[in-house]
Structure formats: structure tokens, C-alpha cells
Amino acid sequence: MQAKKSLGQNFLVGAHYPTRIVASVAPQPNETIIEIGPGHGALTELLVATEANVVAIELDQDLIPELTAGFAGHSNFRLVVADALKVNFCELIQPATAARVVANLPYYVSTPILQRLIEHRACIREMTLMLQREVVERIMAKPGGKEYGYFSALVQFYCEAKKLFDVPPGAFRPIPKVHSSIVQLRLREVPAAKVHDEAFFIELLKALFAQRRKTIWNNLRASKGKFNCDEVTLRVALETAQLDPQRRAETLSLEETARLANQL
Ligand code: SAM
């Protein structure tokens, strides 16, 4: 079957990488594992063999007959034909209340899918994801570096991130133009910085990073309407949080941004 570029289909071939990925998850019998994009089942086969309850979400209708034929005989396998950008993961896994996620994500939607998974953190404990190497670098980046941005801050606020290993283009068919890495994200019990209002903190992060090359002062001023406050209030909040208005968002630690959020 022809791989569909439009669905980010680069299938893992050979046993080496699927085995390493599933071994780093070490699924336990009866726990719930969500797999996004099972494709031809390279990871699914190993996941199902662990006796974990596997809920696989696949968007491509053309892959469904093969997946059904391959796994329908296993009572610990459930196939959901849906868009991972639209499903409610918490409803999907019921009666279970928590799951771990394993996925070789379609790269064209990997960041929105990851953001959606984070939104469902109430029922997700951990995610082991294959992503484009640059995306993993952004996730792992520290404040101050050029890779650090809104996405890094968002993921680090909610997750403890660990890069596991790289996967070369030759591990896939068709061979992608990009390199890949496996990252493991453990959802934190409480966010990495203490904030009064998480939703507000996220809105503030977005505003601070709205224009990367601008100072935090200029970015804040541009969205003062959104925060319903005037320039004097912004100045006072920055001063109380002990932040120089001329800094850029990528230099702020989560703790510093939290200090500012708690003043506004
Ligand atoms: N897991 C397989 C493997 O490792 O060989 C396939 C991985 S392939 C990179 C991505 C898979 O995600 C494909 O099967 C593709 O059809 C599926 N997919 C693409 N967009 C999706 C979406 N929005 N929701 C769910 N699955 C999607």
C-alpha cells in the first residue's frame, strides 16, 4: 500500500526500534495504553503482546481492514477510527481513568496532538513519543537558548521530559527527510511553577512569546487589552516580579514567568 504523505505516514520497519520503544515504556498487563496512528501495527503488535489494554486511534480508513484482521482476535485491543486532534482521550479509555501514550506521531500534526494530549492531562500519566529531532530539541531546550520558545515552556510546565534516543531516517519506509528522536514526557502532579491561575499563566506565555524578537515589555503592551490592564499596572507587575522589561521571553524561567503571572 502506498504511504500517504498527507497523513505523515512513515512506517517503522524492522524489529530494532519498535522493540526499543516498547521496552522503554514497559507496559504492564491490564494497564491502558493509547497508541496514536498504529499504521501497519509495528508498535501495536508489541504493545498487544504485553497484555496491556491497547486503544489504537487511526485516521486512515484504508488501514482499518489490515489492523482489524491483524488484531481483532485480541481482547486487549480496541481500534478507534478517528482524528487524534478531535478525540476526547479521557472518554475513550473509560472505564479506565488513566493511560500512558505511545506513538510514532504523524509529524505534520505532532505539536497540536501533543498540546491536545497535555490538555487531557487529567487521564494521561506519561507519553513516549517519536517526534522530529528538532521538536524534541525544542522540548528539551533551556531558557536562554535559541530553541527555547512557547512550546518548550508549555511542555516543561506540565511535563518532566527525558530524551531517550535518536532514530535515523533509514528506520522508516518511506525514508523521511528528517531525523527523529524518542522523548518520554511524564505529566507532573503539579505544574513546574506555582501559579494562582494556570489558564492565565498559559495566556501570558502566549503573549510574552507573541513576537519573539520583541522585549517582554513590547509584547505585554501589545496584549494589555487581553489582560484588561493598563501600562502602569504592567510596569508595577514587572517591577514587583523583579523582571527587567527589556528582557526577551526566551530568557525567562518558568518561575520568573509565574512570578509575573501572579502579579497581574
Ligand atoms: N505507528 C506506525 C509505525 O510506527 O510504523 C505508523 C506511524 S506513521 C508516522 C503515523 C500514523 O498516524 C499513520 O498511520 C497515519 O495514518 C496516522 N495518522 C495521521 N494523522 C492522524 C490523526 N490526525 N489522527 C490519528 N492518526 C493519524
Explained architecture:
- With 264 residues, the protein is α/β, with parallel strands linked by helices.
- It folds into 2 domains: 5-187, Rossmann fold; 198-263, rRNA adenine dimethylase, C-terminal domain (Helicase, Ruva Protein, domain 3, Orthogonal Bundle).
- It is 34% helix and 20% strand.
- The protein is built from 11 helices and 9 strands.
- It has helices at 16-25, 44-49, 64-71, 89-92, 110-119, 133-140, 150-158, 198-208, 216-222, 231-240, 254-261, and strands spanning 11-12, 32-36, 53-58, 77-81, 99-104, 124-132, 159-167, 172-173, 180-187.
- Strands 4-3-2-5-6-9-7 form a 7-stranded mixed beta sheet, sandwiched between helices. A two-stranded antiparallel ribbon has the order 1-8.
- It is elongated.
- The model has no long low-confidence stretch (mean pLDDT 96).
- Bound molecules: S-adenosylmethionine (SAM).
- Residues 7-12, 36-40, 42-43, 57-60, 63, 83-85, 104, 106, 109 line the site of S-adenosylmethionine.
- The site of S-adenosylmethionine has 24 residues, from strand 1 and strand 3.
Reconstruct the topology from this structure.
Layout: E1 11-12, H1 16-25, E2 32-36, H2 44-49, E3 53-58, H3 64-71, E4 77-81, H4 89-92, E5 99-104, H5 110-119, E6 124-132, H6 133-140, H7 150-158, E7 159-167, E8 172-173, E9 180-187, H8 198-208, H9 216-222, H10 231-240, H11 254-261
Parallel strand pairs: 2-3, 2-5, 3-4, 5-6
Antiparallel strand pairs: 1-8, 6-9, 7-9
Bound molecules: S-adenosylmethionine.
Number of strands: 9
Q: What is the ordering of alpha helices and beta strands?
A: EHEHEHEHEHEHHEEEHHHH
What do we call the CATH topology of the largest domain?
Rossmann fold
What can be said about the biggest beta sheet?
Answer: 7 strands, mixed
- Which term fits the overall shape? elongated
Evaluate the radius of gyration.
20 Å
Distance between the termini: 55 Å
Known CATH architecture of the largest domain: 3-Layer(aba) Sandwich
The structural domain count equals 2
Low-confidence stretches: none
Derived structural class: alpha/beta
Q: Report the portion of residues in β strands.
A: 15-25%
Helical content band: 25-40%
